[in-house]
Design a protein that fits this description.
Blueprint lengths: L1 E4 L5 E4 L23 H22 L3 H4 L5 E7 L3 E7 L22 H18 L11 H14 L9 H6 L2 E7 L2 E7 L3
Antiparallel strand pairs: 1-2, 3-4, 4-5, 5-6
Helix pairs in contact: 3-4
Length: 189
């Protein structure tokens, strides 16, 4: 029997007795898997454990759920003596520095929401082609703008301001230059 590949990728056979090329090659049989030795068994077990751990991690709640709720309008120092502003978390103990890895979602109110709204207006009004109300209330307008910004950056567009969104989006800030302060937008340090 002579085997050759046709253009469709199927295996064709030529019967050595008749010369006919009309048949298909029989499906190959799968050889029995070798019995794993001690090293292969340990590697297989480790693979299974890692796969289960990954599955558990993927089905657990999102990272933003583990982050505390933003409770301040925070500021962080950046290069050139500048500062960047945005929603922040400050523990009840008042221990500085502010933590930027915090969460805001629909229904939140207060200064952290105002910080987010200011960042949206100052850094994304040209992307959105509109401004939102800076009213310290995380309602539909803020959520919809945040979803559009998340899509713009190619991250999960869930309308929740969490650690991933905080790291990705631009925040308002300033730096000192020889000509005075320069206001602009940048990502968190």
């Amino acid at each position: 029997m002579i085997d050759s590949m046709n253009h469709g990728g199927d295996m064709q056979t030529t019967d050595r007795h008749t010369g006919s090329g009309q048949g298909r090659a029989p499906k190959p049989t799968t050889p029995a898997a070798p019995v794993p030795g001690p090293r292969k068994g340990v590697a297989a077990l480790a693979t299974v454990i890692l796969a289960v751990a990954a599955a558990v991690a993927m089905t657990s709640s999102p990272a933003s759920a583990a982050a505390p709720t933003c409770n301040r309008y925070g500021a962080w120092d950046i290069a050139n003596g500048g500062r960047i502003h945005g929603p922040a978390y400050l523990p009840d103990s008042g221990a500085l520095p502010y933590q930027w890895a915090c969460t805001l979602r629909y229904g939140a109110r207060g200064n952290p929401v105002l910080a987010l709204q200011d960042n949206i207006n100052d850094c994304y009004s040209s992307v959105l082609r509109y401004r939102i109300d800076s009213d310290s209330s995380f309602g539909n307008q803020t959520r919809n703008a945040l979803i559009a910004i998340q899509r713009h950056h190619g991250i999960a567009a869930d309308g929740v301001y969490g650690p991933q969104t905080a790291r990705t989006i631009r925040h308002q800030g300033w730096i000192w230059t020889p000509y005075g302060y320069y206001w602009g937008c940048t990502t968190l340090p």
